[in-house]
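Below is how a single chain appears once it has passed through the pipeline. First comes the sequence as given, then the structure the pipeline wrote out for it. We keep one example in the README because the format questions we get most often are answered faster by looking than by reading.
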Amino acid sequence: MKKFTRFISHHPRLVLLIMTILLIPSWIGYKNGKVNYDILTYLPSDLNSTQGQEILDKNFKSAATGMLVLEGSDNDAKELRKEILKIDGVEDVISKSSIVGDTIPKEFLPDEVKSIFYSKDSTMLMIKFNESSSSFVTMNAIEKIRNIESKQKYLSGLSTLVKDTKDLIDKETPIYVFLAVLLGLIVLSITNESTIIPFIFMLNIGYAVLYNFGTNIFLGEISYITKAIAGVLQLAVTMDYSIFLYHRYIEEKSINSNKNEAMDVAIQKTISSLFASSLTTFAGFIVLILMELGLGKDIGIVMSKGVVLGLVTTVVVLPPMILIVERVVEKYNHKVMLPSFDKLSKFDIKHRKALLMVFILLFIPAIYGSMNTKVYYNLDRSLPKDLDSIVALNKMKKDYDMATTHFIITRDDLSNTNFDNLLKEVKEVDGINNALSSKSIVGYTVPSEILPDKLSDNFSKDGYNMIMLDSKYQTASPEVNKQIEKLKDIVNKYDKDGYITGEAVLTSDLTKISNKDFKMVNIASTAIVFFIIAIIFKSVGIPLILILSIELAIQINMGIPFYLNQTIPFITSIIIGVIQLGSTIDYSILMTDRFLTEYKNSKDVNEALTTAVRETSKSIVTSGLTFMAATIGVGIYSRMEIVSTICTFLARGAIISMFVIIFLLPALISVTFPFIKKTTKSLKEL
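Resulting structure:
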């Protein structure tokens, strides 16, 4: 390690040149990395709904289906259909004429079919895409369809939601980074005496972020949520490392006039504490890979990798940067705009019993609020209401009373009697407007002999029959979930190997899996962090006290939406607690470590706590404010509610954790110290 740190500190220009050259392959990896904009694809592959979706995709080319409402006549619809069929990525356009031809007037169609394709002065076209909802071919096809000149048209469906999500995220992500950097620089400038060093810190984090995004190419693809928040979050949770190393360097430089030697010692003395500090943050993220929902693995791997790379750049990239520009750093300094915290430390000890009661009493409303905070799972709710896909969805709901579409897939050797009975029963389920299948068209008015061959491809293919159901109930609503359960019972009654799928069915499974994931990741993260702290301090009491303090902050943060009557995206409830625990537990570790050091010298609990609060509060406040600054701008600016909510919760959580640690933790340690002493190896001997 000494040879390693000496090489870095004594060859700063060479080291920085090497690390800068490594940015080139990182940039290439970043530009060639793929992004998945469809959360539903992260569901486990062994679910009935995902297996059914795969059959729709591979066999029927119906996994990605768009509903287009055209304000116009039959002739307008025919012309538009011809233009859409020319577009690369479009498999078929289902319309009245594509099913029964142009010779049969719409008046002769069965009412259930007529109501699917016609409403008031508009016509419905169902567009089937060649590839999945999230593929770039499908999204390019949607863009071309929207650009076709025609009468007013509205294109909705999961594919259009994915397309609008991509466009919005691609547009906003650079602004997220700009806001995080700008607000982070403001906080760092206020809390540090140097005018230049905050820019050096940001440049160092920039290296780490680019390394992280560049290496994502080895994952195949990342989710759009990860893309949107990973850079901002990496900046927020790893900035501490730069601050700790720089402060240690300044301290060593006051002892050793040779800046290279001072940096060498600073790296050696800091690297172990940085590793310990990053361990809890790493654990907080890596536990997300245990989620059954693949999105957790996506975020967990990218962010835990980001923590490691943030640590690496702090040790390898930051020291050369500081050494190279040190003269400029020393030239421009200003007064630090933070208080001394002397009064705070005395206040904490003087009112420790009252503060302990506050700590205990806060748990009641915090836990109650957290347990009763409402979440939503429908993807369209997180998008701005003026997006084309949302406007089209509302148009379809209004004119066709169609909020979502289900697909039932059965074996084609199912007897006609069973198929007819199945079809009859699903039509009678509450909220089902229409059931479209090959037999929906055949009747007294439309003989089967005159149906075109295309009908077979749309509804019967490769050993499967497909039924398309239109539901008036919205995705993720209690009504549609009840409807889905009823449909599952009917399908299983007639075909135990049958499938039911579609956006609402997939979302229903997403709800069940997410509820299990929420409980599992919170228990796992708490256990892992407890274990890490127990090893660091060789104690049972200390991790218990520290986790209790952060859990209070987490419960307060998660309970606030209940009291504000807010409903939050489901993914927020799963990941926020884990991230807040892993990234802000460091505040309590820093204060406790200083307290133990002071206590071993003074043997006086309250005196040691007073010193610990006074000496660590500046670092804790700087860290909390930097974390808040890096995320609050995105929370306020983003029009994507999932991204906005996650960043708002992270910003608020950092501040709540900061206040809990500097105000309430000292009182908790003071009152429970006899228990801490009995359960901590290093204190038993004192």
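The first strand starts at residue 34 and ends at 36.

See the next section for the split statistics.
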